[in-house]
Amino acid sequence: MKPLDLIIRLEWAVVAAAAVAFYASSGVSWWLFGLLILAPDLSMLGYLGGPRIGAVAYNALHILIVPVLLLLAGHLSGNAAAIAVALIWIAHIAIDRALGYGLKLSTGFQDTHLGRIGRKLNDVSP
Fold first, then answer.
1. How far apart are CA 31 and CA 117, in angstroms?
2. CA 39, CA 117: separation in Å to the nearest integer?
3. Full-prediction pTM beyond 0.85?
4. Closest CA to 96 of 56, 44, 53
5. Cβ(16)–Cβ(23) under 8 Å?
6. Contact at 8 Å (CB) between 57 and 38?
7. Could you read off the pLDDT of 14-72 as tens digits, one per residue?
8. Burial bucket for residue 124 (CB in 10 Å: 0-12, 13-18, 19+)
9. How far is C-alpha 57 from the chain's CA centre?
10. Do 23 and 67 meet the contact criterion of CB atoms below 8 Å apart?
């Protein structure tokens, strides 16, 4: 892994840790966190309609725009549930990025804006 890639992954790990820390301080049940942490991955069902539809569905739930706006709206309105859902969603996205999973390209699930995920040809072991 290139040094810059490592730095970027570490940045996302810090974002994930911050989202979890803020969630912990919110006083909302950890059951909600456990229930929703993988919810954005349900968007992978879009791949049943093909790689283009799958990429659109997956990316729609794996960009920060909506959860950050939800966090802001929750903060401004004092809505603890909105804040909690936004923090869980942000944590999910940040964990994905820290693990090297990026936004999907329409060419296939393994093709992302961060590069191809999965085994590389030179990574084949006997």
1. 31
2. 21
3. yes
4. 44
5. no
6. no
7. 999 999 999 999 999 999 999 999 999 999 999 999 999 999 999 999 999 999 999 99
8. exposed
9. 13
10. no
| The residue type at 114 | L
Block residue for tokens 């191809």: 116
Strands 115-116 and 108-112: antiparallel
- The position carrying tokens 């699930």 is 109
Euclidean distance between CA atoms 96 and 111, whole angstroms: 14
Smallest Cα–Cα separation from 94: which of 21, 5, 27, 11?
11
3-state secondary structure the chain: CCHHHHHHHHHHHHHHHHHHHHHHHHCCCHHHHHHHCCHHHHHHHHHHHCHHHHHHHHHHCCCCHHHHHHHHHHHHHCCHHHHHHHHHHHHHHHHHHHCCCCCEECCEEEEECCEECCCCHHHCCC
